[in-house]
Design a protein that fits this description.
Blueprint lengths: L1 H5 L5 E2 H4 L4 E4 L37 E17 L8 E9 L6 E2 L8 E3 L8 E21 L8 E8 L4 E5 L4 E5 L9 E10 L4 E8 L3 E8 L2 E8 L2 E9 L9 E8 L2 E6 L2 E6 L9 E6 L9 E9 L2 E2 H6 L5 E4 L11 E4 L5 E3 L10 E9 L34 E8 L2 E7 L3 H5 L23 E8 L2 E2 L2 H5 L5 E3 L2 E2 L18 E4 L4 E4 L5 E2 L5 E2 L5 H5 L6 E5 L10 E6 L6 E4 L7 E2 L9 E4 L6 H10 E13 L14 E4 L5 E3 L13 H5 L19 E7 L7 E6 L8 E6 L2 E6 L5 E4 L6 E3 L8 E9 L4 E7 L4 E8 L2 E7 L5 E6 L10 E7 L3 E6 L5 E4 L14 E3 L11 E8 L2 E2 L2 H6 L4 E3 L5 H4 L8 E5 L2 E5 L5 E2 L5 E2 L1 E4 L4 E5 L25 E10 L4 E7 L5 E6 ...
Family: Belongs to the neurexin family.
InterPro entries: ConA-like_dom_sf, EGF, FA58C, Fibrinogen-like_C, Fibrinogen_a/b/g_C_dom, Galactose-bd-like_sf, Laminin_G, Neurexin-related_CASP
Subcellular location: Membrane
Length: 1219
Amino acid sequence: GPAAILFCTCLCLLAWLYSSLTYFISSNLDGNLITYICIFFYSHLSAGAGGWSPLISDKYQWLEVDLGERTKITAVATQGRYGSSDWLTSYLLMFSDTGHNWKQYRQEDSIGSFPGNSNADSVVQYKLQQAAIARFLRLIPLDWNPSGRIGLRLETYGCPYTSDVVSLNGGSSSLVYRLSPGPWRTSKEVVSLKFKTLRNSGMLLHAEGQQGVSLSLELERGKLQLLWIHLLGPAGRLTSLGSLLDDQHWHHVVLEQRNAHLNLTVDKNTERVQLPAEFSRWDIEQVSQKPDISKKNLRGCIENLLYNNVNLIELAQKRDRQVTGNVTFSCAEPVSIALTFPGPQSFLQLPGTTTSSLDGVSVGFQFRTWNRAGLLLTFGLLQKGGLSPAFSPGAALNDGQWHSVDLTCRRGRLTISYCLVTVFLLLLPHQGCPAEEHSEECRNPFETFQGCMRLLTVENQPVDPIMVQQRLLGNYSQLLIDMCGITDRCSPSRCEHGGRCSQSWTVFHCNCSDTGYSGATCHSSVYEQSCEAYKHNGNTSGHFYIDVDGSGPIKPQLVYCNMTEKNTWMVLPHNNTELTRVQPSPGVSQHSVHFDYSSQEEQLLAAISQSEHCEQELSYHCRKSRLLNTLEGSPFSWWLGGPGQGRVQTYWGGAHPGSQQCACGLQGDCVDLQHYCNCDADRLEWTEDSGLLTHKDTLPIRSLVLGDIQRPGSEAAYRVGPLRCHGDKNFWNAAFFDKETSYLHFPTFHGELSADISFLFKTTGSSGVFLENLGIKDFIRIELSSSTQVVFSFDVGNGPLEVRVESSVPLNDNRWHRVRAERNVKEASLRLDELPVATQEAPADGHFHLQLNSQLFIGGTASRQKGFRGCIRSLQLNGVTLDLEERAKITPGVQPGCPGHCSSYGSLCQNQGRCVERANGFQCDCSLSAHVGVFCQTEVSASFKSGTSVIYTFKEPYELSRNSSALPSSIYSDLTLRGENVSLSFRTNQSPALLLYVSSYYREYLALLINRHDKLEVRYKLDSSRDAEVLKSSVKSVANGQLHTVAIRRLTDSVSFDIFSFPESDDLDPDLARLASLGFTGCLSVVHFNAISPLKAALLHPDTSPVIITGPLVQSNCGSAASANPYAAENTHHLSGKKGGASSVQSINILCPAGVIAVVIFVVVTGLAITARFLYQRKETYRNQQVKGVQQENSQDFPFNNQADSQNVSSENPKEYII
């Protein structure tokens, strides 16, 4: 009774609420059935009877319910036909206000079908996510029991719906509401309404305020535009929202102003906009829907127009004095029956013309589509001579708007009248063919049309689609009649981060170019999140884009990554990082300067937050200009730092926040101990207060205010360095799961429409679940299914889907592997390391909201089965890093952090660099390498001039002068070499030249030289009683100014000799070539002998290394890297008569005369002319048979041999390497 209806909370059986419901059906198997189609209740299931079953069970059947008036429908329930095998397994729901222009109901804006029954007796109720307000409901069967027929008993649930409606004729109709004058105004103004129209343009609402400022809501091309208008200037568009709003269905609009912001909501989508400054003191004086002679006015209906909860239509009905207008309090709707061609098999066939009009045809229609092409119409003509078409060009027709076409063909002449249409589209589309026709005439060589049509006419007579639907006119297949099923998939756009959306009838596409993001919806960032991440990809110093929150809303920013130091620094510059002299302005007591950073506010704060350490240099150079005064006094100068505009800070670089001190005050070494800053001593001499600001809460420096600058004699300068940060807390955040039953849990993951998950793992196990989150039916999971396979699986209501990536190498190798998974409304993707991405397309008409409600499990599952044993690092969900370490500290079986990175990143250390483990990451130790750099990848090169030398003493000898007798071999046992590994590169135009000379106390030597034939020779003499072994290279013309690399390897009596040549386009500088007449001129780079790098020590550590430098030594870049070796020669030679021989070393010196620097490759060059000169000048007592032997054996190449004396060997001489 009435009491029951009063408390049904809009879930009442509508059969209770309305005494008489009207039902319409497509066909009926039993004429007595309709009277009790919907008379069933849960309590009467066993007593239920009958049901509806059509004559033919196909997808063209339907059941329609007329509720008598517009009603709020909240649920439906279905049951099979009583005592039969007839029931539905899925169906569609349609709603309408008029019995025409049906609109399909969709859950989540995607799912169109509803699940039905599994038998004839059980009742399946489905609650609508969004209540439908309509008078008519139509159910269309999709699938049914294959062993039976379509069978249905139906009930609908809801409650009455009341509304106030007016009609607008697009001309003289108006409705004006004038607010009462008075001081009362609220900070929140809300206007809401519903409207429906068939026109795609017109004025919807106008709100006028003071100072001639107003807001306007206008429909333009089916979209709602929010405009602001000022009497003194042109109108401006604030935002645009909605699409296809001219579909003659109700659309809900809310306009809400909160101070300087305004929210526009159309249906379920909201845009927030910032109001112009003119609205800062704006008060609404009038809300209206009135004619405007300069604009089209709305032709349609408005319902429930509310201003701050005041119903303006109700006031108009009561003839309230505040409301004036000329409207009709009902909604007069024109009937327009549309046809939808949803797929390639859709067609409509109409009968041809009558006998009296065989000489021509006249056809007219309107269409709308998103597709670029499609065959609209075909017809046959009895041709009498040629056709002479007359037409004009049009515009783009796949914009979703209605376009009109009128075609007339008479007496061999084809005429097309159109509204924004081109003739080529008339020739492209097609309506398919009847199933029974397979003739040549019905073949379709064109793309099929997908879209809507309406207002069809043949011979100027309208075509009634309802007669077509009833099979009384023409023929059709897979056609939706009395509805236009067009959907705008780009409104709202599913493309993220500024991706540009385009669409066809069935799909949308995102153009992600120039956005910095990738994927089907431009969701995932293409950039790394920090300089630390770039370093571990093998990059070196340079400018990089970093995206601190990955797929989050913060845009990528360009920073400089400095990887030359132990820490990897991210450098964020501003507009003035140089030392700047203060220029006081007359009459101004303070000098203020503001710093603008290249990064945006949210980018700065996020970069600082995720860094382990940040710092910024702040220095003040002063001469009679005080800085902070005393602790008790007011500071003369201060700076602002931190978020936003910053907070006032009264301490200086190197001191603590709030101390009102400088670095010298903290250290107690100021020039005047009575003050805490050097500048506060107020002296006439220049001094400075400098230091680093390291408290992240006060960074970056936003502005600087300097006060004591106007006194006579005051001078000052300041410098604010760039913001520098190192360490990525997110990149190294890790946890170790030492048991398969251990796991971490976090709050539910919310990734309803877009979800991206990325992490690194390493393990020795063959399987395990990395991550799992469950819902009632939905779930998401990533697991290691085998030692070579990672699986990403999920269910959003369409059934489980899986994406798999197979690796060719085992993944349980205890090395870091990177996993990146993404799921959006278009597809799911999975990427493992640098393997190709695997993808899985989402269903075209399926669920796309991921609905989870359990906790998120990391390293395990809710059932504690298939747990993961190993390390997980840098786990990020939608750009947000989960703090695994903090949660691991309080979780048994899980340890924070995960050491052991060299197994994964050690290969980045090049050129004999050694990987050293760090708590967070690794470091390349280049101490044993001839290279430098973050990965020991940069060669050390120098440019030598005539007179320059470098002598490196490997080991000081014993004081041999005390005992000049024969030395016992035990003294040199630790200096005995059984082999050498020498690598060097050179660039020279000089021939002949000595590149390398090594001699021992026992008159044994190694020499590398260029002979007069421009070829390389290696000479070994490991026994003073034998002649030297000579090994010649087949490579010609090595003194050609190009870069050559030489490698010599000896192990006992076996010598390997390689030379690589790198052709280049640029020859050696002619100025350097002219210097060849005075000794050697060439290029030295990356000198390496076993574990010693003498040139590197001389250039980078001259004060702490055992080197002697004579003449100018300038670091340069005379060499160049080469990844390929187009010319290579290798000789392996066994030294005759010397098996297993060794050379004794007393002390080793390297002499490096003249050269030019290389960039990347090893270069070591010298010449004997320079060598002999330096030996004579710097080692006057050095006269032995070793050098003389070389000179005699190669006297034709080296004619100057008068400096050597084989008999006078000083016991004070160490063994020398001469380069």
